[in-house]
Write a structure and sequence with these properties.
Strand content: 5-15%
Structural class: mainly alpha
Helix content: 25-40%
Number of helices: 3
Number of strands: 2
Strand order of the largest sheet: 1-2
Order of helices and strands: HHEEH
């Protein structure tokens, strides 16, 4: 695919890539659909590229089962 010079292109920042990887890890570990999480991401253009303004959070001490609703709440 040829790049058109008149079009603006954007890349994901390291922060945005980390947010996507965290969402993927949670989704895979809990066998839940990642699509709602990704759809909920809000992006903002920054110096390094697009950043996720509402990245998912990761629980370290709570061993209770994570449900799809929990994952959706991570990006609100």
């Amino acid at each position: 695919m040829k790049h058109n010079e008149g079009q603006n292109t954007m890349k994901l920042s390291n922060q945005a890539l980390g947010a996507i990887m965290m969402a993927l890890q949670e989704s895979l570990l809990n066998q839940l659909d990642i699509v709602p999480i990704l759809k909920g991401f809000e992006f903002k253009e920054g110096g390094e590229g697009l950043a996720v303004m509402n990245p998912p959070t990761v629980r370290f001490t709570d061993s209770s089962e994570i449900k799809e609703e929990d994952l959706l709440n991570m990006v609100k």
